[in-house]
Amino acid sequence: MPNLRAAPVAFLCCFVVSALAVAGGPFLDLGLDDALARAKAEKKIVFIDFFATWCGPCKQLDSTTFADEKVVAWLNGNTVAVKIDVDEDKEIAKRFKVSAMPTLVFLTADGTELERIRGFRDADAFLEAAKAVAEHPEMDAVTRARAELASGSMPEAMAREKLATALLMNGEQAEALAEYRKALDSLGTDFMSLQYRPRLLHEICSMAEDYAPAREVLIVMRTNQVARLENGDGDRNDVEQIVAIDKGLDQQEKSLELYERLKARGDIPDETLAGFASTCREILLERREYQVLGADNARQVSMALLLIESLRMQRKIVAGDDSGMPDQMTGEIRKRLAEMTEEQKADFLASTERYLVNRVAEEYEIARGAGKEDDATTLAEKLLECCPTAEAHHALAAHALRSGKPAQADLGYAAKAVALDKGQTPEYVLTRFELMEHFEKANDEVTGGAEAQ
């Protein structure tokens, strides 16, 4: 039976990023051991596509590169190709130290890694890389990575990360750690570097699970970044690196402690403190620290709007209407829904809607509290277009009230919630009453101030 409790969030995330992955084309329905045995018998190499159902670039590979006739023909003629879902086959993913998707790995029939490619490649770029592997099967992954680094054919950080991963697969942890550190040192302050640094930190954090020197390196890095912030030289990028390290080392409470210490100083910009939002969101929301949360509001609002759209799409598929959606997007969804009864489908959609309403209402509260009226208006309009229910109207009104900065529109949402509910839920009636009190008090204060003048 499907896990209905976990399904809503998982399905939403799948749609936000892209469609669900489906195997096909050149890929065989084999486990890794069987693939290696078949490759040995057929004198071929093994090709593994490590993917995740929520990974957008993975779907792009399926719909373009792996659907290309030249790619299919080459893989069928030279490899035993298999797909491995990193969420389903976690042990194999861990064995191959897969930390980003898609990861494409070429192996000899005895299991020696020849090459790995991370990220999307179009058909021509994939074939160029794949043919180079097949033409020189005597070169293992480390040798290839060293040659690529020496050639300067890719950015230094990427080349060193590739070399570090190959060394790690060979069990050469000290050398791998040294390359990861050199990769970090090679990064600048441009956008690409800022986006790439957390990925490298994640790799080192993964090493730290069973390699103490990696943990020591991270602790030193964190100490230096904290010092920069406390000296007034740091910025949001330092905060996000600290948060990434704390998350990787499973010590998120240290991020909160640092946030509280920096916040208490009073001289750290909200934009810098916003770097803590990903780890400390629930606590910051509980404390109503809207200016800090609001500094990251644009990205969060965009995500909330994507979640709303994802619910629309799921409703269409449940209703049997997947017109305008590619098969890659709907095939796996239909398969999962086929396992549910009509009652379970209804429960699934209801659970998904409850999650969505609460998530969007939280962003609405932040927007109200931070004084971002345009964002608040957009969120309310889009949510109520998708979910014109008493629950959605009440959630907006209640979160606006909690922000301490409700607008007249929120009183209207509260009244609509009571009307749709026919006054049956005391909580809805109470929220409306509290909003009315809020505006009456505000009006009295304005009137009193005017009379005093």
Helix content: 55-70%
**Strands, count:** 4
Can you tell me the residue ranges where pLDDT is under 50 for at least 5 consecutive residues?
1-7, 13-24
Dominant shape: flat
In percent terms, what proportion of residues is strand?
A: 5-15%
Largest sheet: 4 strands, mixed
Distance between the termini: 70 Å
- Tell me the name of the CATH class of the largest domain: Mainly Alpha
How are strands sequenced across the largest beta sheet? 2-1-3-4
Mean pLDDT: 83
Gyration radius over CA: 26 Å
Q: Which architecture of the largest domain per CATH?
A: Alpha Horseshoe
Helix/strand-derived category reads: mainly alpha
Order of helices and strands: HHEHHEHEEHHHHHHHHHHHHHHHHHH
- What is the CATH topology of the largest domain? Serine Threonine Protein Phosphatase 5, Tetratricopeptide repeat
What number of domains?
A: 3
Helices, by number, come to 23
